[in-house]
Amino acid sequence: MKKILAMVFVVMMLVTMSGCSSAKDLAQSLAAGDTVLGTGKQWGDSPLEKEWELDNGNGAILEYYAENQAEEGALIVSLSCDGEELATETILPGESTILTQELTEEAKTYLCKAAAEEEGGAVNVSYKILQKSSESEN
Predict the structure, then answer these.
(1) Up-side HSE of residue 138: CA atoms within 13 Å toward CB?
(2) 34-46, pLDDT tens digit by residue?
(3) I need a surface site. Which of 69, 83, 88, 128 has the fewest CB within 10 A?
(4) pLDDT of 23 over the 80 cut
(5) How far apart are CA 81 and CA 107, in angstroms?
């Protein structure tokens, strides 16, 4: 019983910090054996930059979800590997995107970033970064 209560508490805390649309969304990710690398929100003048050294040992897919929570101003979100940009997308206020990348057996350094499109602009982003066994269907 204590383990169940502890698990419920952890899921509730992750949902509170994650910006997920529901506890069910996050619980489904965790139940599938996915690894939550990072969740949260960032706002202010500094871009979001989260970096990990990953291989496919804990899942073959890196998934980076970002939602622009600003009232105005676009964000540029990107996913890079060892300094090479793999994917980039511009998201308008209220919009979101998911960038994915297949991981290799060899450990490489991956960087998930969100920055204001306009120089000197503010960042207001909610993000979730997962290492998954397969891509999401949404």
Answers:
(1) 9
(2) 899 999 999 999 9
(3) 83
(4) no
(5) 10
In angstroms, the CA 66 to CA 41 distance is: 9
Q: Which of 60, 64, 78 is nearest to 117 (CA)?
A: 78
- DSSP letters spanning 113-135: EEEESSTT--EEEEEEEEEESS-
- The DSSP symbol for 82 reads T
Count H helices and E strands in the chain, helices first.
Answer: 2, 8
Question: Exposed, middle or buried, 128 (CB in 10 Å: 0-12/13-18/19+)?
Answer: buried
Tens digit of pLDDT for each residue in 58-103? Answer: 899 999 999 999 999 999 999 999 999 999 999 999 999 999 999 9
- Rounded to 10 deg, the angle between the 2-18 and 23-31 helix axes is 120
Q: Which residue has the tokens 């929100």?
A: 41
* The Cα angle at residue 85 between residues 69 and 113, in degrees rounded to 5: 25
